[in-house]
């Protein structure tokens, strides 16, 4: 796999002088085409700050992210973003289909928008709910809408910021499988922020472990669990248990 997204020595400082706070300190890693990379670390270590710097929503103090070799200085066309607070990202007066279509309006012909919306809604299992409003959906279904909207945009890289943090365990497991299936169906590359170590091992091809703030990369862990994964069988594997323990110790610096 070839490198698609690179994070090169990103350093982020808030404030100045005695009030300066270093959130990120020389964070570097890459994401290869077609892989899922999860980022984990202690609470408050700056995972969301890092993702904002990578996406162009925030400017690093020094360092840079590159997409296909091009510096990211503002949100580029090739990046999609799924936020943690999905409910605030949906327009309550619009249907599922209208919410998914929103980023495409004015960019594509109407027929192409309809084709993309149909495919995205079907891919996340919401074909029967396309005419409902967000308030008529469960939290997990609302997050599926947010994911569908991002994939309809057909980005080169999907950035996901703890997208399942607010849903129950069963819904989280279902959505994890949705993400892995989407990676295959849409040939997606995914950078996924999570605080859940089990989730990182189940989803990822590699896991980037961050240190406490001021944050840098402690370790990058390969996850050799194969392409086909199952919520029960995979998580019962000795290798899964070993990797989970290894990453937990790395996060806790034990």
TrEMBL record:
Residues covered by the ABC transporter domain: 5-237
InterPro entries cross-referenced by the UniProt entry: AAA+_ATPase, ABC_transporter-like_ATP-bd, ABC_transporter-like_CS, ABC_transporter_ATP-bind, P-loop_NTPase
Keyword Nucleotide-binding: yes
This protein's record includes keyword Transport: yes
Signal peptide boundaries: none
PROSITE patterns, A to Z: ABC_TRANSPORTER_1, ABC_TRANSPORTER_2
GO terms of molecular function: ATP binding
Pfam family, one: ABC_tran
Gene3D superfamilies: P-loop containing nucleotide triphosphate hydrolases
Full protein name: ABC transporter ATP-binding protein
Source organism (scientific name): Klenkia sesuvii
Taxon lineage: Bacteria, Bacillati, Actinomycetota, Actinomycetes, Geodermatophilales
């Amino acid at each position: 796999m070839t490198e698609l997204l690179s994070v090169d020595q990103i350093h982020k400082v808030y404030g100045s002088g005695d009030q300066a706070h270093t959130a990120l300190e020389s964070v570097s890693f890459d994401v290869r085409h077609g892989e899922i990379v999860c980022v984990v670390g202690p609470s408050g270590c700056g995972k969301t700050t890092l993702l904002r710097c990578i996406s162009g929503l925030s400017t690093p103090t020094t360092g840079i992210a590159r997409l296909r070799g091009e510096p990211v200085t503002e949100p580029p066309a090739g990046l999609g973003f799924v936020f943690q607070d999905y409910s605030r990202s949906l327009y309550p007066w619009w249907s599922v289909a209208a919410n998914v279509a929103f980023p495409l309006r004015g960019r594509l012909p109407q027929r192409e928008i309809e084709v993309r919306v149909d495919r995205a809604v079907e891919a996340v299992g919401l074909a029967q709910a396309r005419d409902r409003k967000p308030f008529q959906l469960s939290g997990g279904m609302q997050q599926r809408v947010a994911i569908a909207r991002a994939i309809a945009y057909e980005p080169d890289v999907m950035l996901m910021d703890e997208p399942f943090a607010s849903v129950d365990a069963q819904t989280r497991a279902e959505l994890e499988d949705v993400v892995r299936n989407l990676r295959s169906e849409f040939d997606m590359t995914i950078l996924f922020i999570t605080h859940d170590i089990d989730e990182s091992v189940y989803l990822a091809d590699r896991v980037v472990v961050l240190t406490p703030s001021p944050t840098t990369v402690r370790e990058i862990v390969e996850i050799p669990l194969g392409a086909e994964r199952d919520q029960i069988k995979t998580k019962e594997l000795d290798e899964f248990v070993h990797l989970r323990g290894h990453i937990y110790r790395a996060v806790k610096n034990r």
